[in-house]
Amino acid sequence: MTSGQPRPRGRGTTLTIAEVAERTGLTHDTLRYYERAGLIERVGRTTGNQRRYEAADLAWLEFLLRLRETGMSIADMQRFARLRAQGEATVGDRLTMLREHRAELAARMRALRRSAGALDEKIDHYERLLHEQRTGTDDPT
Question: What pTM was computed for the model?
Answer without folding.
Answer: 0.77
